[in-house]
């Protein structure tokens, strides 16, 4: 919460927060942060959708919109089997099919205030007193999820996807999904890593440690292989780290982030590769992002 307050003071326009399976509840944290700030937009990246009913999430969103109208963006996603099956012991046989139904319930609940739906996973009839029309985004790694976002959501959020892969696979998939719905492609929010260091060896070591969790997940390994960066002995390669990360001094990081936008992604979600001082890493990144926002 204090980081969100600092980010607003530093001129950052949007702060995204992840929500680990057993971490703190992001919507609850956002309620406190929105009450202590005036301008900054907050976004979930992501709420693991299947941990709560879509109408339950709709009520949380309505409460947050009541606290700070128009300052919320909601990213949802399937999460993955290690969370949904190993931790929550939930069914996870057809996650994209379930996510499609989740969107079919949540999107009209937010956009219109009323929803009547009967499907395989959800059956609801509900009318709310208001419709906040909160932007609803979907996290994606592979083409089918990006296509679903293009068809039904207000955008997609990538995570640890190289820019070349996004341009070659994600954006075309979103365009196909949007065409199915007869509309324009919604925005792609592309995740990027940033490291405030000029020491390449230190960057590679810190990034490899931070990415080890993801390297152990088969779906990330498959996505990286499709992107041209297969794991090497079960670990991420130097080339992958450099494809995912902008690094150097503050000017170099800002230039690297602008270059990614120039390549064709619509927006960036930036998180730090941590060195020895996490607080300083966050503070430096706030300075870079706030400076970029001030020049737009």
Automatic annotation (TrEMBL):
Superkingdom of source: Bacteria
Gene3D superfamilies in the record: Luciferase-like domain
Domain Luciferase-like: start-end pairs: 2-266
Gene Ontology MF annotations: oxidoreductase activity, acting on paired donors, with incorporation or reduction of molecular oxygen
Pfam family, one: Bac_luciferase
The protein's name in its UniProt record: Luciferase-like domain-containing protein
